[in-house]
């Protein structure tokens, strides 16, 4: 374990009835990207603690407006009373969906892993379809996915299969890395790395192995966040139970890392608190964001800092869910260790996509409007690329600002000479 | 010559007075209701709001229980939306309670109250918050919640539509007499001090716990015993239904679901004066402890405020005290009893039976006035909350999300976010001259009754005073400060946990951000010794409102 005395997330001031801790200070509404952008949304204070007072298990849930919440969780980060605003919204949404049923689109978007597996198996065809205007028009009409939203490119070779091959033929013999394999981590790569950006996973593995860390890739299910934000915490819980069961079986002393901030947040916090999965608290206390982990390694004096200079000027966009981790911006700190890297934070708030939110036909425009401040700032800065730890943030910045984007690990891997 | 003339003057703006005004108006009798504070600012507004099935009285006070059964059914019909059909549970949590059960079941049978014993498991399925101590559960489907504010306002508005008039903040200071006959009422405006006279043929004294004071102006005695009851409000409903202890009615044995809150009740302490209602810390503590025996979460829930009301128990001469006294009512015909014609008192009773009380006293007065029309108040609905305005209140959904998304139609802002009060809910009351303070607006809209206790809505309402009533900034600031002051009086009794943190936020908003105290001392310098008030609501009026419900 990288640290012995890691505290778990404490949730609320009044653990028993946290909804009652709300003092109506309205801080949540002032940071909510949706409430700041549109007047059709009442904001987290209303949909969370205020509406919660009126919710009753005996009565049908009122769902109006709940879908407008993008799930960025900035409200919870800001709340001085630590009210679990998101939990009320998500639970109410799930109960409403149970009562009224889910749309095909929300069902599909909730089953990201299934969708991605299908996309990956039929990669060339799926990618062609996703770029075909006629098909996209059809998709918008039938399913409700906005036709201008660029969809992810699927890869036929998954990270999982790549890693199996890699395992047989590691670049460095285990235990004989520069520092020796004194640590082991389990990598929760998530659906994105598995089906869409295998390269990021390869870079994470390379960076870790370069530092003499043995990487284990346990079998895993979707983390469940797409289901959570698509009114299906029931499904998310099913996934979560499966993940917790598998991750609990890891040998003691193995830390868990995630390269997606949202997957990481699910494992760290939401499994235990939102989904109330038994044993999730123990698993969560072992989970680190990959950059957080590397920075802790550096603090322990174990990070290889003999970087090759990388001459680049990049912007860093901090994803909302990273802010929820409460770990600062470890990626920026890491990048500053690399000679030649000039990194600047673009502090313009949420990018607006929020996972599957900005994909939906009725929310696309809103999503682009939320991100417009970020896009303007990125365009004005004229840097090489925008770094963000979250995959959908990267998609949105590429789409909205027309710039290139990458995970911070990309620069780190380059500094280690990995191509 | 009196300044105004009418048929009947009704004194007292609680449920009884409002019911009498409506009954008179429906029989076509001209009437004016006068009330020294606001409507429902006395006993009615400080009740716990239980619509009695009669279960609480069926053992000790069968007559009152039978009245409750009948009246409860009538109210469900005529005040459909003022009543919430919550049902109720009578639960036993100790051996003594269990010993009471046979008497309770027998009482229910005698009074005609539907009562069904259900298993504890079934009860817990319906009410997951039921405490582990619960041993036996009786389901009483006819318990309910009665919103006392809407009830009074609904009756008065119904009367107003039929020609009845209402004057709030109007105190009786004397009567004019014509020999043995009361011929008019002298009144004083509690805020401006202006005095007026109303000529009339009859006066109905419906002032409940204050009846003795009014009667004394005519040198007659009405013996009413004011018995204080303290209640604590929790910021949300812990249970869907009313929860009663199945035992001899005692302290802290009921939890009433009051719309968005839960009310823990109550105590019974004889007090010397109906306006002297101190709330002691041990009373608050006792209510919470006792409530926790019936429901889980009472101790950890957010207590929002505490308040005290006064029961107007009529001394029938029996050697009874407090709860032992009957909750029955009596019509006192002072013409017969004291030889004073044109003066009638209605005393005792309870909110649940207000309509019957009003009918009985109006029957007598109408007969004396030679009006033979029968009362129709049991048949004609109040139309109390028939408009969508009120039906929506408890369902945030209806506050509307425009569809389809993408077309940006701004949502209507809310004035009070805790209690979901919209600008149009407040608007009509801003035009009503009977509404004088922001507390009055609160009673009619629930604005300021939520967990933040007017921290936010107070300044929005003050703004509405400026835009809708054209008052100047300083008056509005004063009104806002007075409103917060009355909220504070209830909050200070539950000063711990979230409500303490809330008070800190409220202080921050009003004293630090708005600098209200400095503004007040600038506009209203403190009076020198011997001088009059600084302004705003006179201390007397403020005192009356000191402990208003929630």
Description:
The complex is a heterodimer of chains A (419) and B (550). Chain A has helices at residues 27-31, 33-37, 44-52, 74-78, 85-100, 104-110, 112-121, 123-131, 133-142, 159-168, 190-196, 198-210, 225-229, 233-248, 261-273, 280-284, 290-299, 320-325, 330-335, 364-381, 391-401, 408-415, and strands at 183-188, 213-216, 255-258, 287-289, 312-316, 341-345, 385-387, 405-406. Chain A is of the alpha/beta class and 419 residues long. In chain A, strand 7, helix 21 (391-401) and strand 8 form a beta-alpha-beta unit. The two termini of chain A are 29 Å apart. With 550 residues, chain B is α/β, with parallel strands linked by helices. Chain B has 3 domains: 4-43 and 149-223 and 327-369, FAD/NAD(P)-binding domain; 81-145 and 225-314, D-Amino Acid Oxidase, subunit A, domain 2 (D-Amino Acid Oxidase, Chain A, domain 2), CATH 3.30.9.10; 405-544, no CATH class. Chain B has helices at residues 15-26, 62-78, 95-111, 120-126, 148-161, 211-216, 281-294, 334-337, 354-369, 388-391, 423-430, 438-445, 457-469, 473-491, 497-513, 516-523, 539-544; strands spanning 4-5, 8-11, 31-34, 50-51, 83-84, 88-92, 116-118, 136-140, 144-146, 165-167, 170-178, 181-189, 195-199, 202-205, 224-234, 242-245, 254-258, 261-265, 269-270, 303-314, 329-333, 343-348. In chain B, strands 6, 7, 8, 15, 16, 17, 18, 19 and 20 form a 9-stranded mixed beta sheet that branches. Chain B is globular. Classes of the chains: A alpha/beta (419), B alpha/beta (550). Chains A and B meet through helix 3 of A and helix 15 of B.
């Amino acid at each position: 374990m990288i640290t012995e005395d890691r505290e778990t997330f404490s949730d609320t001031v009044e653990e028993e009835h946290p909804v009652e801790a709300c003092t109506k200070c309205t801080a949540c509404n002032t940071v909510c990207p949706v409430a700041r952008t549109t007047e059709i949304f009442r904001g987290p204070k209303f949909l969370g603690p205020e509406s919660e007072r009126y919710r009753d298990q005996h009565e049908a849930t009122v769902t109006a407006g709940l879908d407008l919440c993008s799930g960025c969780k900035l409200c919870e980060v800001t709340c001085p009373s630590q009210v679990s605003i998101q939990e009320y919204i998500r639970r109410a949404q799930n109960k409403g969906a149970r009562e009224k049923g889910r749309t095909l689109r929300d069902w599909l978007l909730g089953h990201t892993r299934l969708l991605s597996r299908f996309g990956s198996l039929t990669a060339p065809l799926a990618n062609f379809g996703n770029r075909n205007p006629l098909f996209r028009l059809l998709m918008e009409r039938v399913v409700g996915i906005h036709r201008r939203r660029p969809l992810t490119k699927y890869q036929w070779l998954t990270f999982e299969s790549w890693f199996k091959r890699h395992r047989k033929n590691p670049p460095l013999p285990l235990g004989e890395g520069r520092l020796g394999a004194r640590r082991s981590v389990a990598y929760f790569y998530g659906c994105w790395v598995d089906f869409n950006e295998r390269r990021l996973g390869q870079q994470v593995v390379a960076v870790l192995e370069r530092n003499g860390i043995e990487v284990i890739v346990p079998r895993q299910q979707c983390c469940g966040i797409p289901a959570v934000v698509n009114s299906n915490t029931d499904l998310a819980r099913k996934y979560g139970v499966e993940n917790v069961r598998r991750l609990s079986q890891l040998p003691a002393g193995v830390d868990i890392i995630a390269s997606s901030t949202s997957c990481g947040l699910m494992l760290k916090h939401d499994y235990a608190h939102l989904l109330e999965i038994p044993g999730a608290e123990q698993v969560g206390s072992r989970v680190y964001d990959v950059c957080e982990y590397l920075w802790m390694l550096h603090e322990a004096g174990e990070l290889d800092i003999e970087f090759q200079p990388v001459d680049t000027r990049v912007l860093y966009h901090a994803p909302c869910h990273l802010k929820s981790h409460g770990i600062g911006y470890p990626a920026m700190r890491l990048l500053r260790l690399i000679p030649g890297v000039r990194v600047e934070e673009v502090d313009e708030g949420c990018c607006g996509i929020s996972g599957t939110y900005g994909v939906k036909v009725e929310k696309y425009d809103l999503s682009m409007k939320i991100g417009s401040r970020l896009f303007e700032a990125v365009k004005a800065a004229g840097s090489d690329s925008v770094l963000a730890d979250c995959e959908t943030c990267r998609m949105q910045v590429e789409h909205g600002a027309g710039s290139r984007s990458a995970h911070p690990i990309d620069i780190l891997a380059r500094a280690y000479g990995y191509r | 010559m009196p300044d105004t003339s009418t048929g009947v003057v009704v004194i007292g703006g609680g449920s009884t007075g409002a019911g009498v005004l409506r009954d008179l108006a429906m029989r076509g009798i001209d009437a004016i209701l006068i009330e020294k504070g606001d409507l429902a600012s006395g006993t009615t507004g400080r009740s716990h709001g239980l619509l009695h099935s009669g279960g609480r009285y069926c053992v000790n006070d069968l007559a009152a229980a039978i009245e409750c059964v009948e009246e409860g059914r009538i109210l469900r019909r005529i005040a459909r939306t003022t009543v919430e059909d919550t049902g109720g549970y009578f639960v036993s949590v100790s051996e003594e309670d269990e010993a009471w059960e046979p008497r309770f079941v027998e009482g229910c049978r005698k009074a005609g109250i539907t009562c069904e014993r259900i298993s504890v498991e079934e009860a817990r399925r319906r009410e997951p918050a039921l405490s582990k101590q619960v041993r036996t559960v009786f389901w009483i489907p006819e318990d309910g919640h009665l919103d006392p504010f809407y009830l009074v306002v609904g009756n008065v508005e119904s009367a107003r539509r039929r020609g009845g008039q209402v004057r709030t903040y109007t105190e009786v200071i004397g009567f004019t007499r014509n020999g043995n006959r009361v011929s008019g009422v002298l009144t004083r405006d509690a805020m401006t001090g202006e005095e007026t006279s109303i000529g009339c043929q009859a006066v109905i004294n419906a002032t409940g716990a204050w009846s003795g004071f009014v009667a004394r102006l005519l040198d007659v005695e009405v013996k009413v015993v004011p018995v204080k009851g303290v209640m604590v409000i929790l910021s949300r409903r812990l249970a869907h239904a009313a929860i009663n202890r199945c035992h001899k009615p005692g302290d802290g044995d009921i939890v009433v679901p009051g719309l968005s809150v839960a009310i823990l009740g109550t105590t019974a302490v004889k007090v010397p004066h109906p306006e002297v209602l101190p709330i002691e810390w041990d009373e608050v503590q006792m209510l919470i402890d006792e409530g926790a025996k019936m429901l889980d979460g009472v101790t950890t829930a957010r207590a929002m405020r505490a308040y005290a009301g006064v029961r107007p128990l009529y001394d029938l001469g029996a050697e009874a005290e407090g709860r032992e006294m009957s909750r029955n009512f009596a019509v006192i015909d002072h013409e017969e009893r004291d030889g004073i014609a044109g003066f009638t008192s209605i005393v005792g009773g309870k909110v649940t039976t207000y309509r019957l009380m009003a009918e009985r006293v109006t029957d007598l007065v109408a007969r004396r006035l030679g009006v033979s029309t029968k009362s129709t108040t049991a048949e004609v609905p109040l139309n109390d909350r028939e408009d969508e305005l009120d039906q929506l209140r408890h369902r945030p959904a209806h506050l509307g999300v425009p569809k389809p998304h993408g077309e940006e139609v701004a949502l209507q802002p809310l004035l009070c976010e805790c209690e979901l009060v919209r600008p149009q809910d407040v608007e009509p009351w801003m035009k009503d001259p009977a509404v004088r303070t922001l507390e009055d607006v609160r009673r009619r809209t629930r604005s300021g009754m939520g967990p933040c206790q007017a921290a936010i809505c107070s300044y929005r309402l003050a703004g509405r005073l400026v835009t809708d009533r054209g008052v100047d900034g300083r008056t509005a600031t004063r009104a806002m400060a007075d409103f917060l002051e009355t909220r504070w009086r209830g909050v200070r009794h539950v000063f711990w946990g979230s409500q303490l943190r809330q008070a800190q936020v409220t202080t921050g908003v009003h004293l630090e951000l708005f600098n209200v105290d400095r503004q007040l001392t600038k506009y209203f310098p403190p009076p020198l010794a011997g001088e009059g008030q600084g302004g705003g609501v006179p201390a007397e009026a403020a005192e009356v409102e000191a402990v208003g419900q929630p």
